[in-house]
């Protein structure tokens, strides 16, 4: 393959609801450009893009795939993203290197939940969008409904460029109101014809609308438009490009990816009108500098995907952000400060790869055998000591615990999980010391079942999913006092330490203590030293040294604090972390010979434990803020399910045929929520959840938890 110049490159991501035809369109575009000489189909499991074993088994995409096509002396890179929301991590990573999104709309269905979700991802990343109504050959195809729902969802940004002449199973012709021509497809050939009279009026009307929309984006064009009341094709393209870049204009095209209708015209539009990589706003590096996509600039690569391929190992996919990358170049991985040599550069079309000697700024390629490089890393020419901002993956909303069925596989499981995380960074692996479980976090049950499938079939490790434990917290609600004497005087050196302390709930901004009232008794304290500790698990511990008259040597106070911290790490009620507590050590006793650190640690620990149990202890549970978008007709079912989960509904709003419910729900009640929600709404609802706060559990649940902990302790 020849080396394409920056201006000859386009980077496009294929997005849209599951099953809207992205993989089929990718195949059609590669076929149109001669990159493949036989067209595969998703149903026959022989596409270039869906080649991973799990994709073949499921008949749909799971990973984003990098493909390209060559057309009219241009190279179009495209990233075929999976449509299911479970794979949102793959979609956002694929959006990252793209300079435009093609969002497919399934012609029989119009805008679907997945269309909206993917649109939102492009919005957050400020990428131009073109819509493609695909599947117009389908017997239930409904172009008008598709346009209507597009306008409903995205308003007057929608700019119709094409309409079908004969949608349905004989579909083979499109009127294009930018070109003002009809494109007719038959026998693998395209005929460009004059628009037949019967479609002329409609075409004129849409043409005028498009001209106006194009003109709106450029003052010069606006003046020109007022002057001559029209724009020529060149001028329209200029205006459309401006509108695309500002996300004020989103053109709509028509295709049948299955029957190769409209593909060549779509490719031509991408070449003529979609922004080239150097026409996008220059991205900003970690030093706050704009780095233009300039082939003459210093070489810089950003790795947006790492995949592990059979027989090859790790493959890193990158975008050349600047400069000209040449085979054999030595670069610095500035993310981890390591040297890397780029021995080979590949262009890939799914499973197909071809070696090239060099690659210009703006292009997308891959390489193998790097030592330290992974997704999100920056590779720079020596002397360029900065990095690119990382891809932001959607926060996880589904979790499960996992363990190897045979303990002897533990190490293998750890390695497999970290490899899978590399390939899909939206899967997070947490080794919870607190819960004594490995917790895997992802986007949904299906997402994590894909991981399980890989463990079973690729890594061959027998594993088991279990409900994850809940990270409860313990705290107190009132003041309490305790004294504890640790004394051991049998043979050899003795042990002696006595600690008197008061504990109380921590409240932000509360003044330091001077007098406590405990059980009708007054305890006066004077603070000599204060340590405010931000606990690793959230919340605070404030430790006051209020010792007067040298009752305890200052050198023993760290030991007392250590004893208290040990108990904070394993709370007295259920062994969960304790938080938000103030402790004042105000008195005690020492022995001139027998006192040592161990003694004071134990005295501190036990005094704290005793006081804790008297201080109105409470178990707190994590509460999540959950947003659910529900089709209006399923609102009742979803609401009553939420109520069964102890949800507190914070608000409800209507958004384009959807009801948005905002609620606070205990994590303990969210187990398998995505699966339930999906079955209640036939997959038409979506939700997000993020940690909000800790709240006390209801009394009856506290009872249950205490009993369960007691039983567990007895078992041990
Ligand atoms: N009739 C018709 N069927 C199509 C067309 N494009 C795709 N299909 C079919 O629709 C189904 C889904 O197509 P895919 O290409 O896998 O869709 P996708 O958008 O990649 O799906 P995900 O990867 O799951 O998001 C397959 O059975 C295709 O054959 C089309 O233009 N017309
Ligand atoms: Mg697909």
Q: What fold name goes in the CATH topology slot of the largest domain?
A: Rossmann fold
Q: Rg to the nearest angstrom?
A: 32 Å
**How many distinct helices?**
16
Write down the overall geometry: elongated
Task: Order the strands across the largest sheet as they lie in space.
Answer: 2-3-1-4-5-11-6
Low-pLDDT segments, ≥5 res: none
Count of the domains: 5
Supply the helix-strand structural class: alpha+beta
Provide the CATH top-level class of the largest domain: Alpha Beta
Proportion of residues in β-strands: 25-35%
Q: On the 0-100 scale, what is the average pLDDT?
A: 94
What does this structure look like?
- This protein has a seven-stranded mixed beta sheet, sandwiched between helices. A six-stranded antiparallel beta sheet has the order 16-15-21-12-13-20. Strands 26, 33, 35, 36, 37 and 38 form a six-stranded mixed beta sheet that branches.
- The protein is elongated, with a radius of gyration of 32 Å.
- The longest helix has 19 residues, at 197-215.
- It is 27% helix and 33% strand.
- It has 16 helices and 38 strands.
- With 716 residues, the protein is α+β, with helices and mostly antiparallel strands.
- The mean pLDDT is 94.
- The protein has five domains: 7-167 and 249-279, P-loop containing nucleotide triphosphate hydrolases (Rossmann fold), CATH 3.40.50.300; 300-380, Beta Barrel (Elongation Factor Tu (Ef-tu), domain 3); 398-469, Elongation Factor G (Translational Gtpase), domain 3 (Alpha-Beta Plaits), CATH 3.30.70.870; 474-616, Ribosomal Protein S5, domain 2; 620-701, Alpha-Beta Plaits (2-Layer Sandwich).
- Magnesium ion is lined by residues 22-23, 50, 60-61, 80, 82.
């Amino acid at each position: 393959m020849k080396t394409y110049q920056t201006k000859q490159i386009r980077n496009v991501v294929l997005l849209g609801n599951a099953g809207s035809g992205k993989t089929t369109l990718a195949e059609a575009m590669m076929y149109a450009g001669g990159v493949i000489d036989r067209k595969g189909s998703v149903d026959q499991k022989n596409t270039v893009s869906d080649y991973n074993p799990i994709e073949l088994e499921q008949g749909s995409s799971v990973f984003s795939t990098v493909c390209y096509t060559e057309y009219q002396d241009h190279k179009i890179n495209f990233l075929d993203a999976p449509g299911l929301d479970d794979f949102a991590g793959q979609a956002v990573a694929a959006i990252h290197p793209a300079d435009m999104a093609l969002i497919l709309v399934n012609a029989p269905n119009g805008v679907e939940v997945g269309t909206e979700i993917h649109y939102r991802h492009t919005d957050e990343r400020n990428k131009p969008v073109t819509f493609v109504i695909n599947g117009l050959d389908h017997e239930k195809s409904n172009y008008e409904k598709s346009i209507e729902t597009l306008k409903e969802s995205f308003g007057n940004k929608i700019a119709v460029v094409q309409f079908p002449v004969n949608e349905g199973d004989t579909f083979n012709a499109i009127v294009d109101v930018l070109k003002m021509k009809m494109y007719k497809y038959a026998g693998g050939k395209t005929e460009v014809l004059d628009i037949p009279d019967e479609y002329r009026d409609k075409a004129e009307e849409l043409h005028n609308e498009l001209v106006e929309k194009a003109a709106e984006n450029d003052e010069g064009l606006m003046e020109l438009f007022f002057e001559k009341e029209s724009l020529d094709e060149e001028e329209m393209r200029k205006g459309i490009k401006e509108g695309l870049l500002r996300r004020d204009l989103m053109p709509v095209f028509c295709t049948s990816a299955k029957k190769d209708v409209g593909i060549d015209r779509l490719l031509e539009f991408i070449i003529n009108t979609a922004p080239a990589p150097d026409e996008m706003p220059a991205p900003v590096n970690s030093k706050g500098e704009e780095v233009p996509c300039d082939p003459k600039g210093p070489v810089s690569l950003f790795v947006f995907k790492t995949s592990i391929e059979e027989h090859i190992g790790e493959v890193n996919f990158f975008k050349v952000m600047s400069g000209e990358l040449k085979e054999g170049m030595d670069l610095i991985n500035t993310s981890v400060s390591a040297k890397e040599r780029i021995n080979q550069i590949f262009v890939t079309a799914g499973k197909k790869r071809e070696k090239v000697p060099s690659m210009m700024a703006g292009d997308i390629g891959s390489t193998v055998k790097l030592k330290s490089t992974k997704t999100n890393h920056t590779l720079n020419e020596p002397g360029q000591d900065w990095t690119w901002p990382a891809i932001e993956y959607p926060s996880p909303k589904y979790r499960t615990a996992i363990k190897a069925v045979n303990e002897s596989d533990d190490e293998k499981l750890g390695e497999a999980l970290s490899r899978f995380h590399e390939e899909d960074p939206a899967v997070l692996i947490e080794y919870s010391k607190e819960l004594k479980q490995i917790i895997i976090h992802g986007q949904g049950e299906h997402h994590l079942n894909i991981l399980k499938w890989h463990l079973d079939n690729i890594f061959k490790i027998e594993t088991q999913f279990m409900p994850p434990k809940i990270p409860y917290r313990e705290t107190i609600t009132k003041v309490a006092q305790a004294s504890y004497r640790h004394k051991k005087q049998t043979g050899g050196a003795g042990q002696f330490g006595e600690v008197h302390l008061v504990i109380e709930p921590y409240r932000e901004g509360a003044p330091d203590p001077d007098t406590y009232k405990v059980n009708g008794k007054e305890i006066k304290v004077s603070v000599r030293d204060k340590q405010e500790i931000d606990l690793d698990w959230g919340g605070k511990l404030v430790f006051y040294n209020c010792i007067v008259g040298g009752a305890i040597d200052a050198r023993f106070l760290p030991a007392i604090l250590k004893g208290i911290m040990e108990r904070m790490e394993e709370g007295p009620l259920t062994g969960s972390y304790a938080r938000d507590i103030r402790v004042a050590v105000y008195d005690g006793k020492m022995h001139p010979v027998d006192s040592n650190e161990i003694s004071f640690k134990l005295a501190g620990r036990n005094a704290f434990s005793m006081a804790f149990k008297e201080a109105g202890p409470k178990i707190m549970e994590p509460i999540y803020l959950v947003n659910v978008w529900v089709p209006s007709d399923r609102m009742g079912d979803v609401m009553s399910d939420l109520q069964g989960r102890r949800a507190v509904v914070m608000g409800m709003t209507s958004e384009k045929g959807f009801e948005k419910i905002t609620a606070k729900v205990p994590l303990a009640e969210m187990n398998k929520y995505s699966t339930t929600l999906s079955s209640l709404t036939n997959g038409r609802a979506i939700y997000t959840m993020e940690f909000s706060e800790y709240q006390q559990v209801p009394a009856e649940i506290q009872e249950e938890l205490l009993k369960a902990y007691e039983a567990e302790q007895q078992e041990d």
